[in-house]
Amino acid sequence: MYASVMRCLILCLSGFLMSLFSGAAEEKRTWQDEVIYFMLTDRFFDGDPTNNSPKGAAANLHDPKQNDIDSYHGGDFRGIEIALEHHYFNNLGITAIWITPPVRNVWNTSYDMNDKGKTGYHGYWTQDFMDIDPHLTSATKMDGTPYPEGRDGRMAHYRDLINLAHRKGIRIIQDIVCNHTGPVFYYDTNGNGKFDRFGKNEWITPYKRDGFHSNTKWAKLPEWNIDRTQPAGPVTVFGKTIPLTGILGRMETYGRKGFNGDSLGKRDGEEVMCDFFSLRDIWTDPSAKHYDELVDEFVRIFAFYIEEIGVDGLRIDTIKHVHHQFWADFTSRLRKKIGHRAKDVILFGEAYDGAPEVLGKYTYSTNSNDVSIGGMLNFQMCWAMRNYLRHGGKNFGHANGIERAMSDLHGGPRNGTRPYYNAQPGPDGLNARQKSITFIENHDGINRFRVDNITSRRNTLANAMVLTLEGIPCLYYGTENGLHDTRGKIGPDTETGRLTFIRTNKGEQVKRIQTSDAFRATRALIQARKHLPALRRGRTAPLWLDSRKSKHDDGTFLYARYIPGNPEDTVLVGFNLSQNDSTLSPALISSQQHPLVPEGTVFERIPLAGIDAPGTPPEFATVAANERINLPLKSDGVSIWRVKKQTKQSQGK
Known about the structure:
This protein is an alpha/beta fold. The chain has a domain at 539-651: Immunoglobulin-like (Sandwich), CATH 2.60.40. It has 17 helices and 24 strands. Strand 15, helix 13 and strand 16 (472-476) form a beta-alpha-beta unit. The two termini are 49 Å apart.
């Protein structure tokens, strides 16, 4: 009965949306058309409880109650597969899934941030770049057929996951780290030649600007999977040998400089050379003797995941903590290595910085305008959106930072010789602006959007902005159900939002989530983006922004998404964060100061399921002779207006 009701609901909603968007031309799908769903795999869905404590692992690393943020919770590939089989992502409208690094990790530390230990549940503590972590894989396929034991079996499960996603029309983006490994060696501070696992200085030692610490030794703790970095040489997977040199298992490949607590926020080069707390910095200086060998090793490793496993894209971690030349060489050599697949594979990077000159520089090579990393996570836009939307209760901020970020995506410094973001297209035909990743929350310090005193409604409005602004939208797992971090606060950085989303229940929760208003709203917004070309491929023009100092500032913000030369595709998006309905009278002028649409154009407001009250009828507004239009915006809501398509009958009058 339940399944029948759900199918009816989905079919009815799909039919309604298709009637609204009928006539939209089918286009070749590019990365501009994707909607990315980012998940911490360990926190999405525990589909296979048998892998929660792998053979040989210390028993206390997994929290069966899934409450301790620093322990393993059990999310795995099988959980993703179950969600895929239940059409969860298809029903939501997701077309790409970005997973945290799946490679084999160090499983535990005694000291990391805040002078406490934690586990490597998140995937960023690599121990073996050419193996998959056993916390993520299952002993059998979904049909019960056993996988081979060892590396081949784990790699086969990863490949099966990607093949299943592809059959559902969904791409997979793999998170990669070239800046550091897990704590695979220790600093022998007391000189006893033994790893004192509960001695803080052996995990985290003070930063050494000149030279390096010469007291480092490889650690070995099997129950925490701490061992020399792998691969140690050539690796055979599925009967094919990958000719690796083992450079990542040599001590001289690492900087061994220790860590300074304020290194991460610096721009003086220390942030490139230091450890990340208890993690081990890889020495990527182009002057190093091992430099070319290191670049080529990473190229061979990640080309394997693209060519043999089927990965569709790479999200590149901590790029501002690695020498810029390394990225230019790594990305150019990788594209050359994967050949024709380079036109389909997306590369985008993470630099935890809100300055467009910092974000944009990595879209350029170091010696020319040739593309380096293709796109960037747009932290400037993220922080600007949060400044406008993320306030407790009925409060709101100001959208001037969003307007600035819109401009900076296409502009540059007044005295600069080039724009912030590289306008030269990559092998896929898209430039860095078109592959900018728009997001408002993630797993890092900025935390989940919905924390204490943030309503589910405001969370939905945040997703509406992500899905209607320029760039490729990226949603954080659980946000489609208004997942609430009750321990998180507005303001301080925290990791408390790394919550388990779907607990072990054989997929029943996967079905229930789809009945929530938050899910239906997110789905309706994704459908709007899919069928309105300007939301995917258009430029952006801010149309209305109240003065910050005005006593009439009521939290309204209006912008247009438009395709130059195609006025019939113009879309207007308006936010009203106040508790009162409002009417705006903007001039519909593009960023190039041209009228967006002709006089007399009629705009139609699209009813949005899960946001508008059931039965809300369409509304209409007409552009006057002075390019002005009167647009009503509902309180505490978002309004999407499209150009009303003329029928043949109306055209003949």
